[in-house]
Amino acid sequence: MSKQFALIGPGRVGSVISRALFENGYQPVAIIGRNLQSAQEACSFIGCDVGLATMDLYAAAPAELILLAVPDDRIAAVAGQIHLNQVAKPGCVLLHFSGVHPAAVMRQPEGRTFLFSLHPLFPFADRRQAYEQLGLIHYFGEGDVTAYPTAEALGNTLGGQLHFLSPQMKHLYHAAACLVSNYLVTLIAEAGSLLEECGIEPSQGETCLLPLLEATLRNVATCGTNEGLTGPIVRGDIGTLTAHLQALESSPTGLLDLYCLLGGRTVLIAEGSGRLSTSKAESILELFNKTNFTNKRA
After folding, report:
1. Domain count of the chain?
2. Which positions fall inside the Putative oxidoreductase/dehydrogenase Rossmann-like domain (predicted)?
3. Which residue, 104, 139, 168, sits at the end of a domain?
4. How crowded is residue 72: how many other Cβ atoms within 10 Å of its Cβ?
């Protein structure tokens, strides 16, 4: 018998995961949204009967697995409604997709459900693109041991790799995800502002940077961060770095401190890889420190 599931929160993450489950034998019993239109649109994307779209939380009652794909700040409240109204049947697995909240955020006194959190380490900006990449994604999860078999089966269905975390590590894990995803977007935007200052049209700046970004990611994928690092720091080119700092000091973008902070961390990578000598590393850090920004060596 196929496992029955319900989706609460028909946004991008929930609808993408639900589509993969549906196409691999899981049976949806309800697609529940705060408005009927969003639930119907999710049904169309998932490929299931549009009649499963509803705003009624009780429609999830037959499910063995309830996917709670609501915003982070609503997870505890919606889980509380499920527990208070005894929506979930005993033994049901209640699963959320937050990267920062542990599964225990859904726990209630005398709860009858098993709890798990599963976070896909991937930006769901476009659900069709995300769906096509599901098998390449790494998933990070934690929760009740009794929910592990369901989580492992879910991971196998999605085709990616499932890693188990300690709930105490979720905040640190999510900070890592934000560094590499959210702040990369910020870096691209800030680099684009520097190109704009150079006279490049705002609409062209990010386009110019994309080939550089793609090549850098390929280098990291092929060689790792140590060997994939290029540029003036790993070459020990103090003259180039000095020119950068002088230009940034007079730039209205206010990026001097950010450049120095990232430069200090990059020195540690370059020195740790053996490609930058200790004496050169110290000289470069001293140069950064002259900008009145404190770079501490680990």
Report:
1. 2
2. 7-106
3. 168
4. 14
Whether residue 158 is found in the same domain as residue 21: yes
pLDDT band at 99 (very low <50, low <70, confident <90, very high): very high
Mind listing the pLDDT tens digit for each residue in 229-278? 999 999 999 999 999 999 999 999 999 999 999 999 999 999 999 999 99
Question: How many residues can be counted in the chain?
Answer: 298
Task: Name the residue type at position 24.
Answer: N
Residue position matching structure tokens 């900008």: 291
The boundaries of the domain holding residue 231 are 179-289
Give the list of residues 6+ apart from residue 292 with CB closer than 8 angstroms, or none: none
For residue 260, what are its two tokens? 């120095």
Helix 238-249 with 256-272: angle, nearest 10 deg:
160
Parallel, antiparallel or unpaired: strands 114-120 and 138-143: antiparallel
Buried b (16+ CB within 10 A) or exposed e, 84-121: eeebbeeebbbbbbbbbbbbebbbeeebebbbbbbbbb
199 phi and psi angles, rounded to 5 deg: 105, 0
Q: Is residue 175 helix, strand or coil?
A: helix
- pTM attached to this predicted model: 0.86
Indicate whether 203 belongs to any domain. yes
Report d(CA 149, CA 274) in Å as an integer.
44
Give yes or no: residues 125 and 194 share one domain. no
The answer to whether 8 and 67 are in contact (CB under 8 A) is yes
